[in-house]
Amino acid sequence: MAQVEKMIPVKKLVWALAAAGVLGVTGGALAMRNAKLTPASQTSAQASTDGASTSNNDTQVAATTTPLANAAAPAGNFTPPPAGMPDFAQIAAAQGPAVVNISVTGSVKTRAARAPQIDPDDPFYEFFRRFGVPGMPGGPGQGGQGGEGGSREIRGQGSGFIVSADGVILTNAHVVQDAQEVVVKLTDRREYRAKVLGSDKSTDVAVLKIEAKNLPTVRLGATRDLRVGEWVLAIGSPFGFENSVSAGVISAKGRSLGPDESRVPFLQTDVAINPGNSGGPLFNARGEVVGINSQIYSASGGYQGLSFAIPVEVASKVRQQIEKGGKVQHAKLGVMVQEVNQGFADSFKLDRPEGALVANVEDDGPAAKAGLRSGDVILGFKGQRIVASGDLPALVDQSLPGDKVDIDVWRSGKRETITATLGDANEKGAKLAKGGAAGDADADHAKLGLALRPLQPEERRQLGTRDGLLIQEVGDGSAAARAGVRPGDVLLAVNGTPVQSIDQVRSAVKGAEKSVALLVQRGGDKIFVPVRIG
After folding, report:
1. For the whole model, what pTM was predicted?
2. Which is nearest to 508 in space by CA: 520, 496, 526, 525?
3. Closest to 529 (Cα-Cα) out of 412, 409, 441
């Protein structure tokens, strides 16, 4: 049975490991067989259902010491790195003191379990009431009050880095989520309680502040000139092992990790990132921070060679807004877009499969007011080329509400430029369409295999559209079926042209050479489906 691979914020992964017993309840590190065991001394990310302390007899492998980053090197011969290789030791020594360990504690509410149906006259009723059955008054999860949920304690660990000598620290938003107390530990073992100045869930960036002066700081770089294949270095606290260093290369730039995180053009690396690295810095070969380590891609729950970092430019923008006004604004274009594959490129007569296909335009949104419509392919935004659909949300988010932007679109076989005034996202930016099958199956020429009928007046009112045909049946094995079209979908347009009659559909399909792009409404969503016909 195939395993499902998932994108896992590393803090959540540690809580899962703790709950499964992979991490000790007192945390600190992974338990290992046939290894020298020592009592855990540092808290790792965990979830505890009752907040009870753990016996000191529990044995875990733990980071019991934290060597200072600027400690003297051991005596002996030193071999410099080969020409062209970055000096990782120098980067770690110079920048390591500005990397911090973050410990958080807090609590989250839990739902009460449903009480078992036990008759009060049952002889066991009093026993269960006294000694606890989930859902009964006074039982576990009731917090002493019948019918109410309780709470569970959470403890977690992550990393961060100091960006200002007066104590401003950047980390991941998920590291401090639900935290009631945040403690920052420096490499010289000093500890400070930190205040969360603000966090932005959509970009996963948080800004902390500790009361201290003359602190070491990192140097901030830029991702603009960062090349795929360049060396990068991560410093953090994986599994509680503070100031651990790992290295690798940039595997890709501008990765989109799906609709929910489309605002961030992630850096993909093969640097070993594990639970506890979240929020730590990613350095380039010059010792400059180019990203915040945030997520791993794993089928096993551990590092498997794919890790992702938030570009430093995104983090700096969030920091500036939080320090200035305490909140973060995101721009909105008001469109839902899809990837342009070869089928769509053939349907819209594009030279190559690139751009962001507009599947839906928000009513009265910035895009609608500017004249964008379903079937447009956005090829450029503010002079930046759109290659993949995920490029657009990230570029929109780099702007501010109220900005006027030029958008290059492909419409009816030619380029046009449209000017739009961006709106305020209010936690909702330009979205990627969910779903949308992309079948490339062959079919008989000009035959979709659809049974269509016009919409009734009441159906039009319910759907809020003047155009469209109801898809009553989809032929088994037909091109439309293999592409993912379903009975009950409403066909709104063919190759961007609205349709109101079966003759219009036939005409559009007849004029197509290789494929057609069907805009269908499925429930509340509108998606384009490419259907190969030749």
Report:
1. 0.64
2. 496
3. 441
Q: What is the gyration radius of the CA atoms in the chain, in angstroms?
A: 28
Burial class (CB in 10 A: 0-12, 13-18, 19+), 286: exposed
| Residue 364 annotated in active site | no
> d(Cα 526, Cα 520) in Å, to the nearest integer?
6
Question: Of 244, 256, 278, 294, which is the active-site residue?
Answer: 278
Query: Could you tell me whether strands 356-361 and 377-381 are parallel, antiparallel, or unpaired per DSSP bridges?
Result: antiparallel
Is residue 424 part of the annotated active site? The answer reads no
443, 479 Cβ separation under 8 angstroms: yes
Mark whether 204 is an active-site residue: yes
The CA-atom distances, in angstroms, between 194 and each of 86, 184, 191, 286 are 34, 6, 9, 29
Among residues 171, 218, 223, the alpha carbon closest in space to that of 194 is found at 171
Chunked into runs of 10 residues, the chain (534 residues) has average pLDDT values of 44 43 32 31 37 38 35 47 77 96 84 56 56 47 49 85 97 92 95 94 93 95 93 94 95 81 86 93 96 87 87 94 88 90 89 91 89 93 90 87 94 92 70 44 51 82 81 83 87 86 83 82 85 77
